[in-house]
Amino acid sequence: MRLPGVTAHPISAWAVQAARELADELEDADHRLSFLIGDGNATFTAAIDAVFELAPL
User: Fold this and answer.
1) How many other CB atoms sit within 10 Å of the CB of residue 51?
2) pLDDT digits 0-9 by tens, 11-40
3) Worst-scoring range by mean pLDDT, 5-9, 19-23, 28-32, 51-55?
4) Cα–Cα distances in Å, from 41 out to 11, 26, 46?
5) What does R_g of the chain's alpha carbons equal in angstroms?
6) CA distance 35 to 13
7) How far apart (Å, rounded) are the C-alpha atoms in residues 24 and 15?
8) b/e per residue, 15-40, with b = 16+ CB within 10 A?
9) What whole-number distance in Å separates Cα of residue 27 and Cα of residue 8?
């Protein structure tokens, strides 16, 4: 399990950037993402889904 940077008040832009960084780290380490679990919070937008759909994971 990987926990990217932490903030008390995340906004969508922060969450998307964290997703990009995680996708890059997974790719660099030659790891594959099997599942992505979200809680339905409005901070986690369709833009995050797009990051992982475009990532070669």
Assistant:
1) 21
2) 889 889 988 988 898 889 888 878 878 788
3) 5-9
4) 11, 23, 11
5) 11
6) 22
7) 14
8) bbebbbebbeebeeeeeeeeeeeeee
9) 27
